[in-house]
Design brief:
Layout: E1 5-7, H1 15-22, E2 26-28, H2 34-39, E3 45-48, H3 56-60, E4 67-70, H4 80-86, E5 89-91, H5 98-113, H6 116-125, E6 145-149, H7 153-164, E7 168-172, H8 193-199, E8 202-205, H9 219-222, E9 229-233, H10 242-250, E10 254-259, H11 271-274, E11 278-280, H12 289-311
Helix pairs in contact: 5-7
Bound molecules: (2R)-2,3-dihydroxypropanoic acid.
């Protein structure tokens, strides 16, 4: 039986199994295994993870391909322009991971500013000598300014959280979208990027990685942040210059960095492991059971709809 749906993972929940009941020509094999490569010849649908980049050369081997499903909202690992030319639909998972990712950005911010990792390490080491007036003093956030890069759903969900802990919120995005005010406070009008950076005690990144955002926060741009600012990234590595950020961190110009994503992940720049005042997570933005199940459902529904639509 020739393969119609070629997936690399069973995903979370029953949805890919259910899809297999409707399309028995579904096959789950490891990415880039010999079986995966062989399946490209007949595949009408590919299902990949955000860590499995597809190239134009891969897709040239798929003459029947109608749809690519990615278990992520980000699509920077797919050759979108090429897919558009060939009429290959891309199904991703917007909407259902908005809250989970914004929660994780807030988690990073609070863990960083309240020195949660250091506190926990102290307790676990058995070295804690008791309450002290100056033990692990962190930074308060209420009344400070939070700059948000990207005014899409995740940026806005993070804005609501930042506002709820008393921060002043500003957005910036390259397209110049005006951000709807949907949580009862006035958001300052959109600023120029340099102005946003100059004012941001906290800068949180919520834009996709595209040709126009890759390297957007260069050494010069990062240097505009006020002394002691905190940088949070749950979007994609590659948006800011990691070496420059580490230099500014070591010089104490940046107060701390919280990262869930890295350029070239999971192969981190080893300097991150030595860097002071950082909280580093292994790309957990969407990692709740509820979210991953909702992502599976959305993705499998989209694949089914694409295949049924194509055969009608
Ligand atoms: C995505 O789905 O693109 C996010 O990076 C998950 O954290």
């Amino acid at each position: 039986m020739s393969i119609r749906i070629l997936a690399t993972s069973p995903l979370v929940g029953p949805y890919i199994g259910n899809l297999g009941l409707r399309f028995p020509e579904l096959c789950v094999v490891p990415f880039r295994s010999p079986a995966w490569t062989a399946g490209l010849a007949t595949a009408e649908a590919l299902v990949v993870l955000l860590s499995e980049p597809l190239t134009e050369a891969d897709l040239e081997l798929c003459p029947n391909l109608k749809v690519i499903g990615t278990y992520s909202v980000g699509i920077n690992h797919l050759p979108s322009a090429y897919c558009q030319q060939r009429g290959i639909r891309i199904v991703n998972t917007p909407g259902v991971l908005t809250d989970a990712t914004a929660d994780l950005a807030l988690t990073l911010l609070l863990a960083l500013t309240r020195r949660v990792s250091e506190g926990e390490a102290l307790v676990r080491s058995g070295q804690w000598k008791g309450w002290a007036t100056d033990l692990l003093l962190g930074a308060g956030l209420s009344g400070k300014t939070c700059g948000i890069l990207g005014s899409g759903p995740i940026g806005r969900a993070f804005a609501r959280r930042a506002w709820a802990i008393g921060m002043k919120v500003f957005f910036w995005d390259r397209e110049g979208n005006q951000s709807p005010v949907d949580f009862g406070v006035d958001i300052a009008p959109r600023l120029l990027l340099d102005d946003l950076l100059r004012q941001s005690s906290v800068l949180s990144l919520h834009c996709p990685l595209t040709d126009s955002t890759r390297g957007l926060l260069s050494r010069e741009k990062l240097a505009l942040l006020p002394r002691g600012a905190f940088l949070i990234n749950t979007a994609r590595g590659g948006i800011f210059d990691e070496e420059a950020a580490m230099d500014l961190l070591n010089q104490e110009k940046i107060g701390g960095i919280g990262l869930d994503v890295f350029e070239n992940e999971p192969a981190l720049n080893p300097k991150w492991l030595e860097a002071p005042r950082t909280v580093l997570l292994p790309h957990l933005g969407s990692a709740t059971v509820e979210t991953r199940e909702a992502m599976s459902k959305l993705l499998c529904d989209g694949i089914e709809e694409s295949l049924r639509g194509a055969s009608e």
